[in-house]
Amino acid sequence: MNFASDNTSGVHPAVMAALAAANEGHVASYGSDALTRAAEDMVRKVLDAPDAAVMFTATGTAANALSLAGMADPWQRIFCHNEAHVEMSECGAPEMFTGGAKLTLIAADGGVLDADALDHAASYWAGEGLGGGKPGAISISNTTEAGRVWSPDQVAEIGAVARQHGLSLHMDGARFANAVAASGASPAELTHLAGVDLLSFGGTKNGAMGVEAVVAFDSALAERLAYMRKRSGHLLSKHRFLSAQFYALLDGGLWLQLGAHANRMAARLAEGLAGVEGASLVRPAESNQLFVRLSPDAHDRARGAGAVYRGWPSLSDDDADAEGFVVRLVCSWNTTETEVQELIAALKG
Amino acid sequence: MNFASDNTSGVHPAVMAALAAANEGHVASYGSDALTRAAEDMVRKVLDAPDAAVMFTATGTAANALSLAGMADPWQRIFCHNEAHVEMSECGAPEMFTGGAKLTLIAADGGVLDADALDHAASYWAGEGLGGGKPGAISISNTTEAGRVWSPDQVAEIGAVARQHGLSLHMDGARFANAVAASGASPAELTHLAGVDLLSFGGTKNGAMGVEAVVAFDSALAERLAYMRKRSGHLLSKHRFLSAQFYALLDGGLWLQLGAHANRMAARLAEGLAGVEGASLVRPAESNQLFVRLSPDAHDRARGAGAVYRGWPSLSDDDADAEGFVVRLVCSWNTTETEVQELIAALKG
Amino acid sequence: MNFASDNTSGVHPAVMAALAAANEGHVASYGSDALTRAAEDMVRKVLDAPDAAVMFTATGTAANALSLAGMADPWQRIFCHNEAHVEMSECGAPEMFTGGAKLTLIAADGGVLDADALDHAASYWAGEGLGGGKPGAISISNTTEAGRVWSPDQVAEIGAVARQHGLSLHMDGARFANAVAASGASPAELTHLAGVDLLSFGGTKNGAMGVEAVVAFDSALAERLAYMRKRSGHLLSKHRFLSAQFYALLDGGLWLQLGAHANRMAARLAEGLAGVEGASLVRPAESNQLFVRLSPDAHDRARGAGAVYRGWPSLSDDDADAEGFVVRLVCSWNTTETEVQELIAALKG
Amino acid sequence: MNFASDNTSGVHPAVMAALAAANEGHVASYGSDALTRAAEDMVRKVLDAPDAAVMFTATGTAANALSLAGMADPWQRIFCHNEAHVEMSECGAPEMFTGGAKLTLIAADGGVLDADALDHAASYWAGEGLGGGKPGAISISNTTEAGRVWSPDQVAEIGAVARQHGLSLHMDGARFANAVAASGASPAELTHLAGVDLLSFGGTKNGAMGVEAVVAFDSALAERLAYMRKRSGHLLSKHRFLSAQFYALLDGGLWLQLGAHANRMAARLAEGLAGVEGASLVRPAESNQLFVRLSPDAHDRARGAGAVYRGWPSLSDDDADAEGFVVRLVCSWNTTETEVQELIAALKG
């Protein structure tokens, strides 16, 4: 019963099979191979973006930092949520890759930014002149770090603010499959049709071994991104093995099936938690991550039964009077119905 | 017949098997897993360096850039050969990771630096004061980009210069297996016993899918390196799949068998070339890379027969009067005797 | 009647005289001159810090950014007030000089940080592990950007938190003269005796043409700072002209007389504003900066009479229901009693 | 008798007078003042470049680093002479400001680069692909660090290579006054008419206290440069005192008179040296810097008489068989005929 993160899961069999299949003969290195071309084309097709530039990397932090560096100059401000992965969990990668751009944090419950708040922030900093730094970009996460899912309209509102202020818009899609599956919208509707300029399209949490795609809907960014990937050490020499993973995920819609499965397991878990004394959702169950307040007793029972998950101190702090503390429960592409029922049973004791 | 590079080869079956074996169950992410501990221990054992800090990355450029950033401040100079990979082939990764340290190029035939030349350069720049930047580190490659192999004594001479001037010493071991196999020396003799402070220990060209180890013989660098790996996006979430590769290579000495095999194939090829009209080695055959001047006729015959290899313009320029041009022929862990004979036959026509 | 900023004032006659006096003969460049030694010694004497390293620059942004880069690694977090000059007004200089360290903003009325809030933030980020970045430093401003003045005890509380968490402590003293004069404490009590590690000691706003001192109470930072100043272009070749300014300010205690004068003028202005309809202080008058809510009528009268000052939109927003808007009124070393009375008269109409 | 550098000289009386005159009343800070507008206009007029963007800084290292950062992306190569100030004497400022661009060194006697050599280098690195970094810019110095002077035709040859390869062209004019005076060409002919995109127009060595102008002939660079100057701490708050200096130098052609004077003094010195046993020019006397091989006896005599100058070890090394060593003798705007004669007399003994 491991609900710690979707990156504690292994690799989907189809991806493993694709890696084995790619291991044939001598193939040109550094991405100059036919499989890489095919995987890039597949990404463009899935996103209905025939002119997009596509570039694979092995980590989500690299994909995000390269995306932001593709958009923002060192003297610019990038607006993002105060719990955004780029702020909280990447050890300053955006600052390193952009050459020192500043992340300016915007509060928002659950990470779905408010267009008016962004509009206000962009206006405010534009008014501060040289010293304030120039408003340059917005980064949003879909699904958010809180497990929330954006609708195309919500994204489009942010896209409109971006256009109005001359900002670029990035979407951190480390869990893009979960977002698309949960929203019912198309990948295009959630991205370029809503004003997104650059997408970090996640594969790793979706069942890959380690691959993410940087997608620039304006292909003029392709050269800049290519040099930046190279000099940041993120151009793999045996690149076919990145491409094989992404191709396998997208082929036949596997990525969406896996994303939907993880969401479904989380929904089942949420249903079950409703019947557990000492467990209550603190955020709505919209995708594959649940945030749950547990009583000490419930926690002890679950741990005793071998359940693995992480505490979420920032949320625990939010309500100092409540009993217990908040934990995050993540369902993955390979979470089983059985595991979900076992966890519910363990919490009940 | 592909002699373009050792990274056009695929992955050794034992590594593929290790990846499959590692794909079991939920495992802690970001390197907090037992297999990563075991692989790190194995590296320490192979290098006879029980206190070394070991850190895996997916690319050689990352390993080199992190190593140099672990050693050098932004205002320092790093001395290296003018054909060093860190200068020629990494698009400024050392500059990006160090925050702008300067590579100062030292000429040397075949990339084996001369201790006196280094001593002179370090003294000269120390004498230039603040404006010149502070001499900070030396980076050498073993095997060199020219296929040369360092003896432990040669490394130790550089190590002595480093100590004398207070410089750190880095070894780019992208082809460390070939170097160890060719030298007959132990990994320890070629590194920390000779004064090397940081080693980029290559796995990818040696039969892995994509893994290199940064080895800091002074474990005090461990924290600094860990933060730098994270913020450069080089800490893989499903890290067990990096560790599995390196473990499989080192286990039972596979890495050295593969390195020795590649060297042996290159030696066979060199022998065969001696009998080819219109082909002559321009550098001694010491490891798995050969640099060969081909007549246009020989080249046409080889290409016609389907041989793949790369031209090496910088060497062609060296002797403008000579006929033909220089190419690089690289043997890999999976180069076969048959391929070698086919290439020789093709060149002969 | 110019109350826009203390940097719209010119240069004190004693400083001009010192520049003229320094313009004699050939003098060693880049700070290797006797006057520079004397000015550095004077700084050490004033701060009662005989071992401190002292380094002059031409701008406060440079002094702050060099100080922070002397303390913080690229992967660290620097805690500061959300209205700190380093965050609001330096266009990312701290990020540029540190190589991408993150400023983490702490709210506090008037910019005097609360020790408990800092303690909580440092603990929180330490708990976030690699991804969160490592807590590295604290930066406070004295006087604050809101014109508040720290007591030695208040600084010492922050110093204690810094020590407890292994953080360095920087004080942005762009208006250090005003702070010392207002607090009644000694320069030493407000800095190294209270745990400050690095001080930006301002001269420009205090009557100089353009000079600030970086003071590192731990002289081990001297070499690092010297290289960083050089590579950031902040080592002036005709350096004697920086040193002459600082010497002139400190000589005979002129700096404190000027700081006290500016504070006194602001106090007079505050007294006078008490009798002005349509003008009210929104922050206490502690040093040389006043923040005043003006009615539209009062504003029109003052502007009509030729008064120059700046609006302060962030404070205006704080109380959307209040009439009028907030402006900042700054008194300088050369603000006269007459100007103060003229402004009061103009506001009254 | 100080021939150490033109920055050991003080400030011209006209510049001092201009500083005193500028010290009147309250003036808008950060360059938003009328004197700054006038000084910028004067620069444009002198260069016959009505659309150029002009920006003042206090140091030549800042002017160079900002210029290069205005032209080059972090992943680019900047070609320059191997004795260029940007390589030898700025402690990595170009790397810091550009975010890690690489300086690629081109040998050339006396620093006047050969167009064919540049063409070859640009072609070579363009051929190296991503790994090699992208050729981005060329930086030349006029006068060169060896005291050589470029003709407009020579600059135009480099400009043509730049255009052909899509590179930007920077001129480090720390001694631009000496260059213009010596060449007899107009400022425009030596810069934008010959293909120069960015000029570091030096004032400090020409008689100022500390001011240089960054001139971008393509004014589209203005915004980028403005943000970079701010975040590098090089926007002075009491900016009028920078502007006053440059205005005073350009006003009435003072800058060219001073440059011509320094050149003339060097010519006199060169004439006199012809009659000195144990002194011989190792480079032609073209501007205000002479490089002279001195016998130990001549050196002892000069030092004994109080002459101050610097040894030039790199040139001494060039001819290990020659007696003595090479020194640099720099004449300045305030070097007198008497000092020149005294030095000659001292060397003769």
TrEMBL record, chains A, B, C, D:
The keyword Phosphoprotein does not apply. It holds the Pfam family Beta_elim_lyase. One of its GO terms (molecular function) is lyase activity. InterPro entries: ArAA_b-elim_lyase/Thr_aldolase, PyrdxlP-dep_Trfase, PyrdxlP-dep_Trfase_major, PyrdxlP-dep_Trfase_small. Residues 3-293 form the Aromatic amino acid beta-eliminating lyase/threonine aldolase domain. It comes from the Bacteria. Signal peptide: none annotated. GO terms for biological process: amino acid metabolic process. The keyword Glycoprotein does not apply. Its cofactor is pyridoxal 5'-phosphate. Keywords: Pyridoxal phosphate. Belongs to the threonine aldolase family. Homotetramer. This is Low specificity L-threonine aldolase. It comes from Paracoccus jeotgali.
